[in-house]
């Protein structure tokens, strides 16, 4: 069995290094018969390795972008494979010497790829520049650890500060996605404490430790989770806004990079009718404030009163 495993790995490497290699050549290089090679190729196909015969005299090659390196292993698969030598050791006399050199090459490839990925994550974390909250005494954002955990799908054990309650809590979180919003980074993931999906601001983490525990996020749909969310703050309502932008700013509004899909209609006088449905109002209203009197809320009518009250407070504040 061990001899066949080595031969299968060698066939993969030979096809990868020489696309179009013939069964006869594979048999010679693997010191076996063509009949055995055909059986091995059938086995590899059954393992979903995309090997194809391109016709008589054209040999075998991989289809798609399949390759043996880098090894796309999970940590659990790497641990399982690393235990192979201890199993083989029990029947050492039956194992060819080439097995150990083949095993070492595979593990070396895995370690190299793992180290390379860690370096890439470190460089990405260093390139991303984040602001530091005024109240923070610790400049660390734990961005490297969170990116690493997100890529490897590892649960993180954290200490997190919740601003709305002014409290610190200990939470285990499955980090699903990192989302940049308004010069900040947010983590969206499953919180084991709340037993639900939550959104966390990266700068509010006080401690982050990666656990050996892994998770599967395949059932989570980020687009559905953030549907009708203006930026990051989610609500339960569905509020349809109609806003008129003055012609002087209409072209700038069209260039805005938004997280929701608005409906924009050019008006005859050059103004822009902007319609959008959001599940929370605060972030949209803050965005509108930058346009001042060049942005007028038409609907809902109740938000015209909200803006009027805000303007009254500002006017009284600056009265002499």
Return the string of H and E elements.
Answer: HHHEEHHHHEEEEEHEHEEHEH
What is the percentage of strand-forming residues? 15-25%
Specify the helix fraction band.
Answer: 25-40%
CATH superfamily of the largest domain: Calcium binding protein CcbP, beta-barrel domain
Total beta strands: 11
How is the biggest beta sheet arranged?
5 strands, antiparallel
Question: Which word captures the global form?
Answer: elongated
Please tell me about this protein's structure:
This is YafY family transcriptional regulator. Residues 7-51 form the Helix-turn-helix type domain. Residues 143-208 form the WYL domain. With 320 residues, the protein is of the alpha+beta class. Helices cover 40% and strands 24% of the residues. It contains eleven helices and eleven strands. The strands form three sheets. A five-stranded antiparallel β-sheet has the order 6-5-4-3-7, with helices on one face. Strands 9-10-8-11 form a four-stranded antiparallel β-sheet. A two-stranded antiparallel ribbon has the order 1-2. Strand 3 and strand 4 form a beta hairpin. Helix 1 (2-17) packs across helix 3 (34-46), helix 2 (23-30) packs across helix 3 and helix 6 packs across helix 7.
């Amino acid at each position: 069995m061990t001899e066949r495993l080595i031969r299968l790995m060698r066939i993969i490497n030979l096809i990868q290094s020489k696309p179009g290699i013939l069964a006869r050549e594979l048999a010679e290089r693997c010191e076996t018969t063509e009949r055995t090679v055909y059986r091995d190729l059938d086995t590899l196909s059954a393992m979903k390795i995309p090997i194809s015969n391109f016709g008589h005299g054209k040999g075998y090659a991989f289809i798609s972008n399949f390759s043996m390196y880098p090894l796309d292993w999970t940590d659990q698969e790497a641990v399982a494979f690393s235990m192979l030598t201890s199993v083989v050791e029990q029947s050492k006399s039956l194992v060819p010497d080439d097995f150990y050199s083949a095993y070492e090459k595979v593990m070396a490839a895995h370690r190299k790829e793992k180290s390379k990925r860690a370096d890439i994550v470190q460089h990405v974390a260093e390139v991303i520049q984040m602001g530091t909250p005024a109240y923070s005494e610790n400049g660390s954002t734990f961005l490297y650890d969170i990116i690493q955990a997100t890529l490897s799908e590892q649960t993180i054990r954290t200490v997190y500060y919740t601003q709305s309650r002014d409290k610190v809590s200990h939470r285990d979180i499955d980090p699903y996605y990192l989302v940049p919003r308004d010069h900040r980074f947010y983590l969206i993931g499953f919180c084991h404490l709340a037993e639900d999906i939550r959104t966390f601001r990266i700068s509010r983490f006080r401690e982050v430790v990666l656990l050996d525990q892994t998770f599967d996020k395949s059932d989570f749909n980020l687009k559905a989770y953030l549907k009708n969310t203006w930026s990051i703050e989610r609500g339960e309502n569905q509020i349809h806004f109609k806003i008129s932008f003055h012609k002087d700013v209409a072209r700038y509004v069209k260039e805005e990079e938004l997280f929701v899909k608005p409906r924009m209609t050019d008006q005859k006088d050059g103004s822009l009718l902007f319609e959008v449905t959001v599940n929370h109002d605060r972030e949209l209203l803050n965005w509108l404030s930058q346009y001042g009197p060049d942005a007028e809320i038409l609907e809902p009518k109740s938000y015209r009163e909200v803006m009027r009250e805000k303007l009254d407070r500002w006017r009284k504040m600056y009265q002499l």
